Each structure stands twice: as structure tokens, then as C-alpha cells.
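U., I forgot to send this yesterday:
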Amino acid sequence: MPFQLSSAADKGFTNASSYDTFRPSYPPATVDDLLEKLQVKDLKEARIVDLGAGTGKFTELLASRDEEYEIIAVEPHAEMRKQCEGKKLRGVTIMEGNAATIPVKSQSVDAVVVAQAWHWFATDEALEEIYRILIPGGTLGMIWNVEDYNAPKSWEPRTAWEAKMKDMIWSCDDQHPRFRHEEWRQVFDKQLSSTPFTIQAADPLFSLPLGEDSTEFTCWLSPQAIWKRFHSLSQIAVLEDEELVTVKDNVFAAMDAPDVEGNNEGELPLHGRSVYAWTTSVPGLPLKHGE
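Result:
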């Protein structure tokens, strides 16, 4: 099946400049640990694909490191790709492509990293394509910044105002896959599903269980900055007219509640977690590839 960019992503990320400005970067210690888990920390000139690179929020962290990685940033969204190109990052080649058609030779990269994007294309097709481009025993890593207001229902927000904003997110849910739906692991778990009719799926492409870890973060932002960050979410970015005004009013009302505690500069503590996962490709062609 040909890859098709989700309509929510296509429209929701049109304002790539705003996305790049107001979306957060990733904690240095978390990035360091993920790269160590992917066996590319301190590996000079390792070849890494940043898949679904977007505006290059993670790409620029890779490009700034002392390892002098060779980075291939693959992104299907034209506006996001253009924003990334404007950064002129060292050692980075930016290419149009997607998770089903990665413009890279087979068995030619040490690691694939997917930042803030795996939920959009967590499919068998994507997993097979990533496996194809990795060297034997190559690694796949995924990372997300997840604010308390954009988290799974099972996560408890740390403040009442963030809980109110979380309720708004879920009330605006457009049924497109997001991290908060907690379905991104399913494609890995399916590798071990086996019936008399699907025996070829019993040989996994990637090692299980996934390695997983997370780091909590708090950043102090003005109410206006929090709104702009909130508005950069694709499901909010597509809202218009009265619907957008209503959501914005509700967000500011939540932040202006009597129980909200800020600092002397009028900033509020925004909470979240950086969540990351990793796995290693299983060397050799599994049964599903006809061997």
C-alpha cells in the first residue's frame, strides 16, 4: 500500500516555523542515553537516519555532536522539510521520503531514530523498511516529549490546570494516532503473534521486549508561550474561527485559575516526560522475507 501522509499531519504541520519555534528540544542527558542504547554514542561518523525528521528538532542535536555523524534526515512534509533545510546543519542530507519508502540503500545505516513521529507510521510496512536499511544488528530508537496535558489517560497530571488542558486535548481528539493513545508498541508485539495462518510473523525483525525509559521535565514558560506550544499540536493547529477561540479562551482560563502558582516573572511550571524506546534488528532474514 503506498504511503499517504496523514491528513492531520499534512494540515496540522503547515505552519512549520511555529512548530519549530515552540516545540521543545530534548534533554541532553536523555539524548546521550538513547544514543548509548543505540550503540552509536562515541561511534565516529556513524550513519544515522532521522526518520520523520520534521523541522530538524532532533536532527540538530545529532549534527552538533562530536561524533560527526553522517545524518540522513527523511521527511515527507514539504514545509517541515523546508524549515529543516534552512538550518544548514553540518553533516546532514535532507531527503523527501517516508517510512514506507526510505531513499537509502539496504543495510547501509547504523541506526534509525524517530523523534516525535513513530505513532504516525507504526506499521508492519515501516518496520520492514527500517529493517531493510539497517546493517545486521543495527538499532532503532524512538523518542517523544510528552507534556502532562498531552499524555495518555493513565498518566496523572501534576497540576490541576494541566489536567484541565489534558481534558481539552482528549475532547478535541480526532482519532488520528498519537503517542497518548498508547498504540505505538503494537506493531512490535505483533511480531510474536502466530497462528496456523500467520506462522511467518513468528520470526521477529526486532528484538523484544523493547527497551524503554523516561525522564521527567519541568520548564517555566509564560502563559502566551504555553498557548503557542499547545497550539502547535496538529489537532489544535487545524482549528479555526469560533472553535479555536473557544479552546484558546479555555486554555487561558485554566492557567488563570486561583490555584495556579507561578514565579515572580509570571511564568508557570509546565510538566512532562521525555519517553524513549529502543530495539536491535535481528540479524538474518526472517521467515516473513521468504528465507
